Automatic annotation (TrEMBL):
Residues 38-146 form the NADH:ubiquinone oxidoreductase-like 20kDa subunit domain. Coiled coil: none annotated. Binds 1 [4Fe-4S] cluster. PANTHER family: NADH DEHYDROGENASE, NADH DEHYDROGENASE [UBIQUINONE] IRON-SULFUR PROTEIN 7, MITOCHONDRIAL. GO terms for cellular component: plasma membrane; respiratory chain complex I. This is NADH-quinone oxidoreductase subunit B. PROSITE patterns: COMPLEX1_20K. InterPro entries: NADH_UbQ_OxRdtase-like_20kDa, NADH_UQ_OxRdtase_20Kd_su. The gene is nuoB. Its EC number is 7.1.1.-. Its main location: membrane. It comes from Actinomyces graevenitzii C83. Keywords: 4Fe-4S, Cell membrane, Iron, Iron-sulfur, Membrane, Metal-binding, NAD, Quinone, Translocase, Transport.
Length: 185
């Protein structure tokens, strides 16, 4: 007896529309170029031939936020650059995700002063935090694969906007950066 007869009718594939849409969306992400400091060099190296992001479907780094759906905030964010980062995020179409790359983008890093925002989550809602100073390209690939897993498992018609609004409201209700005393207080 052949394999086809044993399996019954192999011509049918049973899955949900959410699963197919999640797989399609998670495997074709286009990051926007948002290199702000030294972590940007590692982000550029990730797109080079040694690490080859093309095998994951992430090879197209877009210079226009209108064509991107992932923002990789790589490096420290100054208060002068914060409105520009937010403007780029607001220009991206929904659904959109953010990876905070490096210690400076995630927490302000070693720059605990008035000029640097103490975390990109004060400006935009962050989905993945990538530690390190600077993080290696392998770590960025791992963060991107984790984001791919999150995207493929999320509901198609989920309440992402409500969640993003709640996260942004919590960030706005947090202690403002100018009032933070840090470790020196």
């Amino acid at each position: 007896m052949s394999q086809e007869n044993q399996a019954g009718n192999p011509g049918f594939l049973l899955t949900s529309v959410e699963t197919v849409a999640g797989l399609a969306q998670s495997r074709s992400l286009w990051p926007v170029t948002m290199g702000l400091a030294c972590c940007a060099i590692e982000m550029m190296a990730t797109a080079g031939p040694r690490f080859d992001l093309a095998r994951f479907g992430w090879e197209v780094f877009r210079a226009s936020p209108r064509h991107a759906d992932v923002m990789i905030v790589s490096g420290r964010v100054s208060h002068k650059m914060a409105p520009i980062v937010r403007n780029v995020y607001d220009s991206m179409p929904e659904p959109k995700w953010v990876i905070s790359m490096g210690a400076c983008a995630s927490t302000g890093g070693m720059f605990n002063n008035y000029a640097v925002v103490q975390g990109a989550d004060h400006i935009v809602p962050v989905d993945i935090y990538l530690p390190g100073c600077p993080p290696r390209p392998e770590m960025l690939i791992n963060a991107m694969l984790e984001l791919t897993k999150q995207i493929s498992k999320r509901p198609l018609l989920g309440h992402r906007k409500e969640i993003a609004r709640a996260v942004e409201a919590a960030a706005l209700a947090a202690t403002p950066t100018h009032a933070q005393k840090g470790l020196l207080a």
